[in-house]
């Protein structure tokens, strides 16, 4: 339920109203707009009388929310959320490019790629230290050593780093990581979601390859319910009957999510199709559809990459894409 308060409502009466809700065991989500103050009620509101609340002197209107996600709901937070990562803003017209290799391999590789993507205009550096793989025989990442190499690249360039966590037990290793990524296979790992919900740093949440948008938002709700409201949603392609590409990018997810939630929405065109030549057109389409950013895989030698070389761009290719990204974002009024 959402309570919209009147402009210039008496502060004492507003506090009394809040206290009455708290006494009923409800949690409050306060959203301050330009001209209005919203009180979102989280909990069992079935016994609350809408007409009685609406008749109160300080109340402008009352609205029930039918969706099960509350904190992630745009109705609860009409203004788009801007997630700030070390001064790099994502959301509400602020566009960011996250780039780097699928997996961390060597110190030299990470620093070289980090310097290249930074020179081309990327705002954040990605790299996988822990790698979830379909086959147990595939390269699983360097783990803790990979995180240390990522931090070396961060020191060399100043780029904030984005990397995936696999287990709640690894959380203490991520203290210096700037954005914690929850991968598609862990989108409904609820214990992991609860744990990152207690951390005071942004979380990049990828959509599962067979999950609905409401399921994605409910996973975001798990994180936000823990107190961490800095969530970035990522559409990375879903599994369909099409076999000519790895996954199918659900471009329609961008405007639909924008209508449902205030959280930033980015796309991962590299994993979406799994094919190098499709990264650029999918990126352009995402910008036109309203995305707040993209995450692109870049490797200095894709042919020898230990993971996903087929979809990785070379630094030269990435530079060409970034020139078009800058022009396209400018055309659509976005700030990089």
Characterise the protein shown here:
By secondary structure, the protein is an alpha/beta fold. 32% of the residues lie in helices and 18% in strands. It contains ten helices and 14 strands. The strands form three sheets. Strands 7-8-9-10-11-12-13-14 form an eight-stranded parallel barrel, surrounded by five helices. The protein has a four-stranded antiparallel sheet with strand order 2-3-1-4. Strands 5-6 form a two-stranded antiparallel ribbon. Strand 7, helix 3 and strand 8 form a beta-alpha-beta unit. It is elongated, with a radius of gyration of 21 Å. The relative contact order is 0.13. The model has no long low-confidence stretch (mean pLDDT 93).
Relevant terms:
336 residues, eight-stranded parallel beta barrel, 14 strands, 32% helix, 18% strand
Largest sheet: 8 strands, parallel, barrel
Helicity, as a percent range:
25-40%
CA-based shape: elongated
Order of helices and strands: EHEEHEEEEHEHEEHEHEHEHHEH
C-alpha termini separation: 36 Å
**Classification by helices and strands:** alpha/beta
Could you tell me the strand content as a percent range? 15-25%
Count of helices?
Answer: 10
Low-confidence stretches: none
**Going across the major beta sheet, what is the strand order?**
7-8-9-10-11-12-13-14
Give me the count of strands.
Answer: 14
Mean pLDDT: 93
Radius of gyration: 21 Å
Quick synopsis:
The chain has 336 residues and is α/β, with parallel strands linked by helices. The chain is 32% helix and 18% strand. An 8-stranded parallel β-barrel has the order 7-8-9-10-11-12-13-14, surrounded by 5 helices.
């Amino acid at each position: 339920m959402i309570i919209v308060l009147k402009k210039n409502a008496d502060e004492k009466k507003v506090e009394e109203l809040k206290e009455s809700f708290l006494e009923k065991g409800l949690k409050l989500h306060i959203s301050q707009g330009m001209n209005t103050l919203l009180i979102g009620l989280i909990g069992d509101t079935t016994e609350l009388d809408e007409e009685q609340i609406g008749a109160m002197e300080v109340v402008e209107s009352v609205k029930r929310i039918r969706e099960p996600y509350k904190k992630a709901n745009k109705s609860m937070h009409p203004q788009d959320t801007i997630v700030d990562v070390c001064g790099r803003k994502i959301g509400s017209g602020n566009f960011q490019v996250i780039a780097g290799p699928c997996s961390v391999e060597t110190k030299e590789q990470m620093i070289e790629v980090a310097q290249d993507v930074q020179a081309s205009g990327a705002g954040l550096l990605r790299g996988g230290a822990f790698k979830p793989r379909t086959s147990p025989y595939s390269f699983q990442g360097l783990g803790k050593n990979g995180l240390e190499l990522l931090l070396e690249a961060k020191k060399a360039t100043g780029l904030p780093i984005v990397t995936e966590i696999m287990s709640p037990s690894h959380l203490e290793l991520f203290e210096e990581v700037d954005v914690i990524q929850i991968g598609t296979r862990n989108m409904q790992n609820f214990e992991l979601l609860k744990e990152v919900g207690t951390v005071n740093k942004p979380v990049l949440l990828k959509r599962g390859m067979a999950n609905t948008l409401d399921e994605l938002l409910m996973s975001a709700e798990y994180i936000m319910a823990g107190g961490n409201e800095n969530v970035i949603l990522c559409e990375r392609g879903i599994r369909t009957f099409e076999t000519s590409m790895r996954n199918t990018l659900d471009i329609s997810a961008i405007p639909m999510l924008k209508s449902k939630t205030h959280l930033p929405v980015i796309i991962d065109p590299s994993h979406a199709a799994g094919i190098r030549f499709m990264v650029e057109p999918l990126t352009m389409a995402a910008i036109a559809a309203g995305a707040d950013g993209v995450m692109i895989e870049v490797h200095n030698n894709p042919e020898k990459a230990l993971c996903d070389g087929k979809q990785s761009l070379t630094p030269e290719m990435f530079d060409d894409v970034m020139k078009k990204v800058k022009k396209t974002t400018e055309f659509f009024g976005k700030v990089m």
